[in-house]
Amino acid sequence: MAGVKKVVVLDYGSGNLRSAERALHRVGAEVTVTADREAALEADGLVVPGVGAFAHCVQELRAVDGPRTIGRRLAGGRPVLGICVGMQVLFERGVEHGHDAEGCGEWPGTVEQLQAPVLPHMGWNTVSAPADSVLFAGLADERFYFVHSYGVREFPLGQDGRPGPLAPPKVTWAEHGDRFVAGVENAALSATQFHPEKSGDAGAQLLTNWLATL
């Protein structure tokens, strides 16, 4: 679609709203930070940020009807980008501090503590993206900024090798102690475990790549 892309950063009380807003504005988007459901449904793109505990983020997201808004957009092929815990809540469940919480269920999988000698995983790290990735196009060997102790260590969807009517998700991995999901591209739904808005030029290029899909 020609012209400036209109993006809503979903304000549900969690996430680096202003830094996400600034980063998207910097790469040419027209950005609104709001909890308004109609605005979130009508925008060219919806960004779901998130920081903190999985269960709390899901609770706050439900308070603004976020899961249904995300589902409605995806049903119409309207792009959504989850960031950090905003990616994690898209999975089926999260297990944190012994608390098992239900997520949005857009993808099967469990968010759990990383198996690493040092937590949180904080700082710059490389990722391993599929060759046909759109989000990571032109970003081979770049580093991205992570801050998290929990992640998705298994991504079962599309891994059985059986052909289906839909293309399997493109999964990007990173390592800290062991392997975890660093990014997913699944039709209109994309997400990153790292913070593109804190990842300098590499993060700006990733956001530019995402905007180009809107």
Automatic annotation (TrEMBL):
The keyword Lyase applies. GO terms for biological process: L-histidine biosynthetic process. The keyword Cytoplasm applies. Residues 8-210 form the Glutamine amidotransferase domain. HAMAP family: HisH. Heterodimer of HisH and HisF. This is Imidazole glycerol phosphate synthase subunit HisH. It comes from Geodermatophilus telluris. The gene is hisH.
